[in-house]
Amino acid sequence: MTAETAWQRPASTGLLTKLMTAVRPQFRVEVYLPDPGDRILGRPLCSVLGCDRSGAEHRLCSAHGFRWRAAGCPDMSVFLADPGPLLHGRIELSGCAVDGCRYGTHGLGLCTRHRGRFTRSGQSEPATWAATFPTVSEPDHAQRGLPFCSLWIEYRHQLFCKSHHTRWCQLGRPAIQDYITHCLDRGKARINFSTLTPQLKLEFQYAVQRRFDDNSITAPTPVINWAIRVAANAGVSSLLDYDEDHWRAMTASKSSCSYQGFLIHARNAVELLAQGTGWEVEYDRDIWRLHTLPGVTRNPGKTDNARNNLRFDRISQPWLRNLAKRWIRQRLVSGLAVSTVLVDAGAVTRFSRFLDQCSPTISSLAGVDRPLLERYLGWPAGQNGSQAMREDAVTCLHTFFQAIRQHGWDDSLPTTAAFFPGDAPRRPPAASRQLSEHVMAQIESPANLDRWSHPQCRLLTLILIRCGLRASDATSLDFGCLIHDGQGAPQGPGKVADRSCRAVLAGQHEFEWSVGVSGVMSDGFCDVAGSVQSKKSDGQVS
């Protein structure tokens, strides 16, 4: 990238004000605990009955997951039937062995007071001594501090029992309410913003809020917390202190793309808030963020917030880049789909590469004439690419020159700079894209459908077969995609969802059997689409 196109940090004037206005109180907290039922940020509870911690691997919390692996990874139903005693932090702390005494133990199963008396008694068995000790009756012990701890407080100036008071001191004596919250939320999925500087904290809170509002791609709490640690360790005051390429280089060692992806999402969200959106913002950039432009026709099967970048930085000639921007903008505002315009931009980029390799001395559009184009006709054949790419290299460039003449963008274009019928290579007959009958018979076979380990995937397969949907159509549906009319009948909000809904209604009994529940039309299909969307964001669905 040249010095003229190098990234410059947007002016930060007003960004802090915009962040304070945009971030809702729900997310402006030091520690955010997503709801376990939140499809985007939440994590389901541990599968062990009565465990309120967040599930992770095999839908078990980390502690129960450790027990499951220590037991030799038995069948999950066997482990869930006997997962062992309650976990530390949820189990009742042991109290003094003397009847009626609820002070915490200090050794030998006795509290501090009774242990001293036992030592002075000269006896050898603390359990026998405790059984003969008179019952303690002290009804004035008020329960304060932690709501789940029933032990007595050692001293009146304290708020916790002996064990929890020691733990409070080990944590640095935080605020009482913060310590209580820490104990109550231990083991639950959380997003910790407390380590960030004020503006950086607001930026990440805004990024999490945006991901929540988009309701499209999941953002697990470990992913967000990792991105927060990276930004905090970088010593920046704002995500905009570094450009996107710098953040990518810093996080290139992370194997999973979702971790790096959320950090880039956070930076882009803050940049959009700082700069605004629209043609006036995007046009001067060398990389257009098409998802921020109004009125752009999305690709079939893609949602409105689907990300698409259009790169002009690969066009090395400034005069060609400026003309390509005018042409691409005109194509987009005329209603052409993003996929078509990306092909157009790719053709101009290839022509730019041809000029660099074969005619580097051309410095303006006036140097583009028919002899040059005749040399260009033979150049795509030596490049890697499909037959369609070679055809687009000619047809798209021909349309580009026509637009320059029609709109008068540059009168220096020679009249001989044109392509003629027969210049473009002939495209071979396209192969049939439909599956053969014997393949479809195998897919539709009930025995093969029953090989799905999840009934939701079996249901989704039936829906795709019945209504002819592509996988991209199914994965682009929003969570809770169905709407209901006045009589409560489910309907799809758009053409794709409507076809899916009709497919569900057409095979109601078969679909209900496939998931083993009733009422699948109203909830089951949405759960299926949401499940596939989550898998798509993790790279499990192509």
Explain how this protein is built.
The chain is mostly helical and 542 residues long. The two termini are 32 Å apart. The protein has 4 domains: 15-39 and 190-275; 112-184, no CATH class; 279-407, DNA polymerase, domain 1; 437-537, no CATH class. It has helices spanning 15-22, 62-70, 76-81, 112-121, 126-132, 162-170, 176-184, 198-214, 221-234, 244-250, 257-275, 279-282, 318-333, 338-358, 370-378, 387-407, 437-444, 446-449, 455-467, 471-475, 495-506, 508-515, 520-537, and strands at 31-32, 191-192, 287-289, 309-311, 483-484, 490-491. Strand 5 (483-484) and strand 6 (490-491) form a beta hairpin. It is built from 23 helices and 6 strands. The longest helix is centred in the middle third of the chain and has 21 residues, at 338-358. The chain has a two-stranded antiparallel sheet.
